[in-house]
Amino acid sequence: MDFIISVLISALAFFVGAQLLSGVTVKNFGYAIIVAIVVAVLNITLGIGLKIVSLGLLSIGIFTLLLDAILILVADWFLDGFKVKNFWWALILAAIVAIIDGVVGSLF
Questions:
Q1: In 3-state terms, what secondary structure has residue 100?
Q2: pLDDT by residue (tens digit) across 21-65?
Q3: Is the separation of the CB atoms in 75 and 39 below 8 Å?
Q4: Which pTM does this prediction carry?
């Protein structure tokens, strides 16, 4: 149940981020749920591998944000209804998603 709530919160964050940023588009909220699931799976698989390789840099919180931006770009490559113009838009989106996930997640 926690995973479903986490995915829905992340989907909301991706949808809101796409509405706020002109360099990010998500087809609709249903597709934002798919984006959240794909990014979660990428974070579990590819993200863990990248974090293990870069153990020395993980103490810097900004590096996790950079990894999230990279995973967002990978998700963009896989999904047709989700587009991010470049790395900088992905980085801003990662920050928005982290903020919304943190605020809304703390409420639940």
A1: helix
A2: 999 999 999 999 999 999 999 888 887 777 766 666 555 667 788
A3: yes
A4: 0.87
